[in-house]
Amino acid sequence: MDGGEENNVKAVRRSKEEKKVLRKQIKTSHTLLKHEGINTTPQPNKSLVVANGGLGNGVSREELSAALKEMGEVESLMMPPHKPYAFVTYRSEESARKALVHLNGHKLQCGDNGVTLYLGYVNSVNCEEEKAAPLPEGLVLVEDFVSPEEEALLLAAIDWSSTNDDVTAQKALKHRRVKHYGFEFRYDNNNVDKDNPLPAGLPEECLPVLERCVRNGHINIMPDQLTINQYESGQGIPPHVDTHSAFEDTILSLSLGAKTVMEFRHPDGRLVPVVLPGQSLLVMKGESRYLWTHGITPRKFDMVPVCDPQSSANSESDIRSNSNLTLSKRGTRTSFTFRKIRHDPCRCAFPSTCDSRGALSTPSPSPPTAPSLPCCHADAARLEEVYVHRVYDAIASHFSSTRHSPWPRVCHFLSSLPPGSVLADVGCGNGKYLGVNPEVIAVGSDRSSALVQICAERGFQAFVSDALSVPLRTASCDACISIAVIHHFSTQERRLAAVRELVRLLNPGGRALIYVWAFEQEHNKQRSKYLKGQNIGQPGNLSPVNSPAEDRQEPCVEDGDKSVDSMQDVSKVTDGKLSVHTNRTAFNTQDLLVPWHLKEGKKRGEEESKKDGKQNKRKETSRKTPGDFCSPSSLSSKPKSDSNSASSPGSDPNMSSGSGPDTSDATHAPDSEPSLSGDTTQTSSSPLKPESESGPAPVFHRYYHVFQQGELEQMCGHVAGVKVQSSYHDQGNWCLILEKA
């Protein structure tokens, strides 16, 4: 829809509204080309792109198809997952022309929301169908496992009316209702009290179902523990692995009521969404039970395959191939998760996630078994999964409450970008930099689904992604920022790969700003705010009285030249093991674990956020830039699963912060902005209690590689096609700006 597009419509006198639609039609065409690589054409044909009419905009296939079919016979309709546009091909060119004339600028009502469609001709429809990802090893989905009559009987057996039920250990958690039978699952220690069974065993109504499971070979021993979770629309459970030491291998999850999508994630980042229809049975064994996290993202709509009675393809294969998808509104879902209590230590083949080997522990001042520096790619991925990704998903809400004031020098970089520039914040955290410059088109990505959810609640465009593989087109960005991210990668190769990925995203002439935590916390005879906080509170559990260090910044001093050859040899760790750093002290090694003390004050902040959330969201939304299809749509957090908990470890986030030095183990400071997300989960080194429970605050341990002076420049020197425009020291961080040739 370039200038010649106007010739497609007969030159007649247009009304003011028609002129407005034409302007927006042309603008959307330019936006699609710039950000999605979709080239419209003035030449009429049978194929059209429908901007704003995609799954990523909340438009279902049925709603869009109905509007399109009014214009003529549709040959094909392609709706790429998460994208805010669709492609339609009509049987005749005349039908396509009719659609362009009548649907361009048409407001389509989708549930409670309306979207305005803008159409344009395209010469070809290129939407590659992805190959179906295999289910995790050991995972089996059995549809229609129980009859409608059995489903009704099981649901009727649950008595939710009790408010204080010690017999079934009923809990009212933040995101769902829970009942335990046989044994109570304890969210304070992520385990069960095996010597204290509940008075009530499993409900009699469950026995026929379990006997059928044994007969059919889904499990070889009768379960003795049941957790029932009830989810309303929009609720979910964070990603987690069921505690190894608590339960035997096989876990059965029976889905009753509305269907939902459960997401399984491997430590290497692979994601497999699985549709769980009502009356279906999910069987988790082996690798799928011990290694992959599973969770349900809290949202009101899921992407699911279109129901086709003529198709023999099953649900989970269709969704995994991204073929023929639509949106499904969630309803109330109740899950029955059956497990067998384990009485001996777990001897599984997955020590990296096994708490019997010290991988998943209860809160402690230091990890029970200090991890070693990785010696290969697989070891590095496992270390980062346990000591970075899961930690940030667990502390996301508290972390966000301490990250509210953008750093001046980062703001200066963002403000220097010309209007209309495309900015990618890789590792955006809670999105505090996404709204700094309202004249740019900003999109964020982060490994932490919980932090991405906070971005979405604040009205920002963000999606879940690994910094080593960002799903944006090459040379699609005018600028990138990576603030407090690269220091979480545990090998030199992976840190270098993260820089190369930033450079890949840049246009020629584009710039990237990188911040990493510095080994030198005292520079040019000036101590960083991080060290200046060392006299506040108690050693190892320090709590700034005011805002965290990064939010009390003073003017920074440009660093002088220092030869890379003069770097100290501090990279070695004792006996190959990572040490736990004492907060607010100078570093004595470059690779270490930094504690984060989850403070009770966070809960108060969450309560405050409930009344302030709407106001903050309106404020942030008002700063967003226009452009409905500039970036992938926001993905919400990936909560915990049916099985364990409100507290099991979660699956994602290398991209820890969207802010300056990601250093604080700060409490929720009195003047801190309250978190906009109430979702909290547990991590590998420390489970997190639900709000109704009390006890010592959990301690989490995050992996860091702190950079020596000159190290960041030296590393970036290995990246082809870029030059270091400038470098400096900013309050305990080494920073540089790269420019792509």
Automatic annotation (TrEMBL):
<dbReference type="InterPro" id="IPR013216">
    <property type="entry name" value="Methyltransf_11"/>
</dbReference>
<dbReference type="InterPro" id="IPR029063">
    <property type="entry name" value="SAM-dependent_MTases_sf"/>
</dbReference>
<feature type="domain" description="RRM">
    <location>
        <begin position="46"/>
        <end position="124"/>
    </location>
</feature>
<keyword id="KW-0949">S-adenosyl-L-methionine</keyword>
<dbReference type="Pfam" id="PF00076">
    <property type="entry name" value="RRM_1"/>
</dbReference>
<feature type="compositionally biased region" description="Low complexity">
    <location>
        <begin position="631"/>
        <end position="654"/>
    </location>
</feature>
<protein>
    <recommendedName>
        <fullName>tRNA (carboxymethyluridine(34)-5-O)-methyltransferase</fullName>
        <ecNumber>2.1.1.229</ecNumber>
    </recommendedName>
</protein>
<keyword id="KW-0539">Nucleus</keyword>
<dbReference type="InterPro" id="IPR037151">
    <property type="entry name" value="AlkB-like_sf"/>
</dbReference>
<feature type="region of interest" description="Disordered">
    <location>
        <begin position="597"/>
        <end position="697"/>
    </location>
</feature>
<feature type="compositionally biased region" description="Polar residues">
    <location>
        <begin position="655"/>
        <end position="666"/>
    </location>
</feature>
<dbReference type="InterPro" id="IPR034256">
    <property type="entry name" value="ALKBH8_RRM"/>
</dbReference>
<dbReference type="GO" id="GO:0005634">
    <property type="term" value="C:nucleus"/>
</dbReference>
<feature type="region of interest" description="Disordered">
    <location>
        <begin position="1"/>
        <end position="20"/>
    </location>
</feature>
<dbReference type="GO" id="GO:0030488">
    <property type="term" value="P:tRNA methylation"/>
</dbReference>
<dbReference type="InterPro" id="IPR035979">
    <property type="entry name" value="RBD_domain_sf"/>
</dbReference>
<dbReference type="GO" id="GO:0016706">
    <property type="term" value="F:2-oxoglutarate-dependent dioxygenase activity"/>
</dbReference>
<dbReference type="Pfam" id="PF09004">
    <property type="entry name" value="ALKBH8_N"/>
</dbReference>
<keyword id="KW-0963">Cytoplasm</keyword>
<dbReference type="GO" id="GO:0008757">
    <property type="term" value="F:S-adenosylmethionine-dependent methyltransferase activity"/>
</dbReference>
<keyword id="KW-0511">Multifunctional enzyme</keyword>
<dbReference type="InterPro" id="IPR000504">
    <property type="entry name" value="RRM_dom"/>
</dbReference>
<feature type="compositionally biased region" description="Basic and acidic residues">
    <location>
        <begin position="597"/>
        <end position="626"/>
    </location>
</feature>
<dbReference type="InterPro" id="IPR005123">
    <property type="entry name" value="Oxoglu/Fe-dep_dioxygenase_dom"/>
</dbReference>
<dbReference type="Pfam" id="PF13532">
    <property type="entry name" value="2OG-FeII_Oxy_2"/>
</dbReference>
<keyword id="KW-0694">RNA-binding</keyword>
<feature type="domain" description="Fe2OG dioxygenase">
    <location>
        <begin position="222"/>
        <end position="342"/>
    </location>
</feature>
<comment type="similarity">
    <text>Belongs to the alkB family.</text>
</comment>
<comment type="function">
    <text>Catalyzes the methylation of 5-carboxymethyl uridine to 5-methylcarboxymethyl uridine at the wobble position of the anticodon loop in tRNA via its methyltransferase domain. Catalyzes the last step in the formation of 5-methylcarboxymethyl uridine at the wobble position of the anticodon loop in target tRNA. Has a preference for tRNA(Arg) and tRNA(Glu), and does not bind tRNA(Lys).</text>
</comment>
<keyword id="KW-0408">Iron</keyword>
<feature type="compositionally biased region" description="Polar residues">
    <location>
        <begin position="674"/>
        <end position="687"/>
    </location>
</feature>
<keyword id="KW-0862">Zinc</keyword>
<dbReference type="InterPro" id="IPR027450">
    <property type="entry name" value="AlkB-like"/>
</dbReference>
<keyword id="KW-0808">Transferase</keyword>
<keyword id="KW-0479">Metal-binding</keyword>
<dbReference type="GO" id="GO:0046872">
    <property type="term" value="F:metal ion binding"/>
</dbReference>
<feature type="region of interest" description="Disordered">
    <location>
        <begin position="532"/>
        <end position="569"/>
    </location>
</feature>
<keyword id="KW-0489">Methyltransferase</keyword>
<dbReference type="InterPro" id="IPR015095">
    <property type="entry name" value="AlkB_hom8_N"/>
</dbReference>
<feature type="compositionally biased region" description="Polar residues">
    <location>
        <begin position="535"/>
        <end position="546"/>
    </location>
</feature>
<dbReference type="GO" id="GO:0000049">
    <property type="term" value="F:tRNA binding"/>
</dbReference>
<dbReference type="InterPro" id="IPR012677">
    <property type="entry name" value="Nucleotide-bd_a/b_plait_sf"/>
</dbReference>
